[in-house]
Design a protein that fits this description.
Number of helices: 5
Keywords: Coiled coil, DNA-binding, Metal-binding, Zinc, Zinc-finger
Order of helices and strands: EEEEHEEEEHEEEEHEEEHH
InterPro entries: NA-bd_OB-fold, REPA_OB_2, RFA1B/D_OB_1st
Family: Belongs to the replication factor A protein 1 family.
Helix content: 25-40%
Largest sheet: 8 strands, mixed
GO molecular function: DNA binding; zinc ion binding
Pfam family, one: REPA_OB_2
Number of strands: 15
Length: 323
């Protein structure tokens, strides 16, 4: 029976289910050794119109199926063991994972243009409502590339490198992506390029929510996706409007030149960031005040209850003494 990935669960562990999916990503064969001996496996990320799931093949199944699965191709996959994902080793966005086995059958499919060719991407607007430490896949236009900076670690003489990249998308929201050390030094892209971050981690750095590129994250510059083309078209129109606004601001002035326009753009970007950070900090303070207010109300209620109980006990004592 054919299922969507979103409907898979460990109650289906018979040889009676199949899925039609695209291979988003496939690892190399990986060797390992433990107390039971040596072995090998590979992993793959599969996607359909509903969601993603990670699949794994070990031993003979690793050899048998490795060459059958190629990135970006679509396959019908039948049979396999479905079990709860071990989140210590599996950071995919699904609560389940698939283990291929000897009865797993894989057949390539053609003509499935409606299956996504990339992860389900969050807009930058979505980012601002997500929890800290969660992972995010997103995409945006690079509107500013900061220089890499060397930062001294707290309580240590060691240092690390970081670089901030500012992304913006069609929602009008911006976000700062933080690159560290080697990624910060070797970053190679230009303002106006499209940048996608897969498995970026949401962090708070200097009181501002940002996306951190970790060792398990992936950076893609100008990926060959439809959403990339859409963003490029949008950004061209965005730039035209920005230049039009700047030219209107310059009416009556005799001294505006290209460098001043660039400075206006930089000042506008900086002002946007300051305003955004101001809004975020104000929101965090408001949230904290609400929590404190709730705590005060709870304590006040507890005080009232205790005073009432104390008065009741006092009345009981007086009544007993009178008798």
């Amino acid at each position: 029976m054919e299922y969507d990935i979103a409907d898979l669960n460990n109650d289906l562990n018979g040889d009676n289910w199949s899925i039609t999916v695209r291979v988003l990503k496939k690892s190399n064969k990986i060797s390992y050794q433990n107390e039971r001996g040596t072995g090998k496996y590979f992993t793959t990320i599969l996607i359909d119109k509903t969601t993603e799931i990670r699949a794994k093949a070990f031993g003979d199944d690793c050899d048998r199926l490795f060459l059958q699965l190629q990135e970006n191709n679509v396959y019908n996959i039948k049979n396999g063991k479905i079990q709860l994902a071990d989140k210590e080793y599996n950071n995919s966005k699904n609560d389940y994972e698939i283990f291929f086995k000897e009865t797993t059958i894989i057949i390539e499919q053609f003509g499935f243009t409606d299956i996504p060719t990339h992860p389900q991407l969050k807009t930058i607007e979505n980012f601002w409502s997500m929890d800290i430490n969660t992972l995010i896949d997103t995409i945006g236009v690079i509107i500013k590339i900061e220089k890499s900076k060397e930062i001294k670690k707290k309580n240590s003489n060691d240092t690390y490198k970081l670089r901030d990249i500012i992304l913006k998308d069609k929602t009008g929201f911006s976000v700062t992506v933080v690159l560290w050390d080697t990624e910060a030094i070797n970053f190679n892209a230009n303002e106006g390029d499209i940048m996608s971050i897969i498995d970026g981690q949401i962090i708070v750095f200097k009181n501002v929510n940002k996306i951190s590129v970790t060792g398990s994250s992936e950076i893609l510059i100008n990926p060959r996706w439809k959403v990339t083309e859409d963003l490029q078209s949008w950004y061209k129109e965005f730039e035209k409007k920005e230049l039009l606004n700047l030219s209107q601001m310059s009416i009556g002035s005799q001294e505006h030149n290209t460098s001043e326009i660039s400075q206006c753009n930089r000042n506008k970007t900086i002002n946007e960031r300051i305003l955004q950070e101001n809004i975020i900090e104000d929101y965090q303070i408001s949230e904290r005040l609400l929590k404190l207010h709730d705590e005060v109300n709870k304590k006040q209620k507890e005080i009232t209850d205790l005073n009432f109980k104390k008065q009741r006990l006092s009345n009981e004592r007086e009544s007993l003494l009178e008798n």
